[in-house]
Write a structure and sequence with these properties.
By secondary structure, the chain is mainly alpha-helical. The chain has a two-stranded antiparallel sheet with strand order 1-2. α1 runs antiparallel to α4 and α2 runs antiparallel to α3. It starts with 7 loop residues before the first helix and ends with a helix.
């Protein structure tokens, strides 16, 4: 079962973590001194898949995914200087969040199609 979802389960978990970071950026757009954060998805996915015991399964390799995401986490520099030290650019964050949402939905549809094909095979319909 661990190979059933392939990289899609891991990708879905990493995309979820990126969405959480981006939503925190949007929520803290007016917080003085808040530093915008992001996640390098490709680096996190590569690290999670290469981690021993990850097996490409988000359920079994949860710790590996967390470590890989932490390693790929970075603070995004400000595109515009701010007097209060906040580096969040609202328009940039909203665009990044919209793109990340579409990518999450794509990963979710891959997982859903895999599960649906397994259910079809099990029920014989």
């Amino acid at each position: 079962m661990s190979d059933f979802l392939g990289i899609h389960g891991t990708a879905l978990a990493i995309r979820e973590q990126r969405l959480q970071l981006l939503s925190a950026n949007i929520a803290n757009a007016d917080t003085p001194g808040y530093q915008a954060q992001d996640l390098n998805f490709n680096a996190a996915l590569s690290a999670a898949l290469q981690a021993p015991g990850a097996g490409g399964n988000a359920l079994e390799g949860g710790n590996a995914i967390g470590q890989a995401s932490a390693a790929a986490h970075f603070y995004r520099p400000s595109s515009q200087p701010s007097l209060d030290g906040n580096t969040v650019d609202g328009d940039r964050e909203n665009a990044a969040f919209a793109q990340a949402t579409l990518e999450y939905k794509a990963s979710l549809s891959f997982v859903e199609s895999k599960v649906r094909s397994m259910l079809t095979a099990i029920t014989g319909q």
